[in-house]
Amino acid sequence: MKKLNERIKKIRNDLHLSQQYVADYVGINRSAIAEIESGKRNVSAAELDLFSKLFLISTDELLHGTKTSAPQATFARKFDQLDEEDQIEILNLIEFKKQMKSKRG
Predict the structure, then answer these.
(1) What is the pTM of this model?
(2) Pairwise CA distance, residues 21 & 26, whole Å
(3) Tell me: the pLDDT tens digits for 23-60?
(4) Topology of domain 4-64, per CATH?
(5) Is 2 left (phi over 0), alpha (psi -120 to 50) or beta?
(6) Sequence-separated contacts (24+) of 19-23 with Cβ below 8 Å
(7) Residue 86: phi, psi to the nearest 5?
(8) Helix, strand, coil share of the chain (percent; to 5)
(9) What single-letter DSSP state applies at residue 42?
């Protein structure tokens, strides 16, 4: 099982985020990110929360590498954070996708 520092590095790379971008988001310097990823520096609770928000995963998944919520639950939480115009656009896209699938099947 991967350690926290390895998961942070992998997710950052998977998302194509630079160490500098992550450092700016978390509010630390780039060398601190390098230390975290190499396992030379621990992550504070506040930093863990920011990593989780930036990577769009739960802190539990970040800490343990296990997903704790279904995609629908994650979607619902994120959907509520959008303004009404964006919500309508997403609902229209969902309806469009359903119509396209029914035409194929």
Answers:
(1) 0.64
(2) 9
(3) 999 999 999 999 999 999 999 999 999 999 999 888 98
(4) 434 Repressor (Amino-terminal Domain) (1.10.260)
(5) beta
(6) 22/51, 22/54
(7) -65, -40
(8) 70, 0, 30
(9) P
The amino acid at residue 39 is G
Residue (of 70, 39, 25, 72) closest to 61 by Cα position: 70
The b/e string for 12-40 (b: 16+ C-beta within 10 A; e otherwise) is beeeeeebeebbeebebeeebbeebbeee
Please, are residues 13 and 44 in contact by the beta-carbon 8 Å criterion?
no
Amino acid present at 93: L
Per-residue tokens: 43: 């992550």
Q: Which residue has the tokens 């029914």?
A: 102
